[in-house]
Amino acid sequence: MTEADDLRWRLEQLYFGDQGLFRGIEATLDAACVHSALILIYTLVDISATLDLPAKKRNTSGSDFVWWCETYMKCKESLGVSGNDLWTARCGVVHALAGALDKVSAKAKAEGIVEIHYAYGNQPVIPMFILSSLAPPAPRMMLHLDFLLQVLKLAVGLFIDRIIQDEDKMHTVADRMQIVFSTVPSRREV
């Protein structure tokens, strides 16, 4: 087994395995724990952006999160929102369990950040023109969590493929996996 095969297996276990990150998100959605699912979804992007950092960079910033969303999720095309919109939503959800812009920074409002609302289960997605007409007027969008999760899974698959194709990135990620994710065994250890 090659080093690339081992790393791919470890990354797939981390994200898609029986005890992987996506399994945790799905378990929260199955239990209708929507806030928990949102926190895990946005944290998964944070984790991925951290793994994707250049070798000499240690800490992520909002720009790393935005870049990951725009590069791998293709968020404008797939979701109709920008990476900055997702970063603002992430900050609202993770820090205050708030998706509404009245709970996030005035700077975000001034920049025209789209206020993201969420549907889950059998809830319909309300069209943007209806959401945007609500008081106070603001750009709004509703995402269905199942669709957001589907886009995120595709993005992670692309992310893993790109890691394996870039030998320098592969070594950086392998080193980070040893430190950060010590609970994900090497395939050689299983």
Summarize, please:
It is built from 10 helices and 2 strands, in the order αααααααβαβαα.
Regions with little confidence, pLDDT below 50 for 5+ residues: none
What would the principal axes of the Cα set say about the shape? globular
How are strands sequenced across the largest beta sheet? 1-2
Hey, roughly how much beta strand do the residues contain? 5-15%
Helix content: 55-70%
What would your notes on this structure say?
The chain is mainly alpha-helical. It has a domain at 3-87 and 145-189. It is built from ten helices and two strands, in the order H-H-H-H-H-H-H-E-H-E-H-H. Helix 3 crosses helix 6 and helix 3 packs parallel to helix 9. The radius of gyration is 17 Å and the shape is globular.
Give keywords.
5% strand, single chain, mainly alpha, two-stranded parallel ribbon, 190 residues, 10 helices, 62% helix
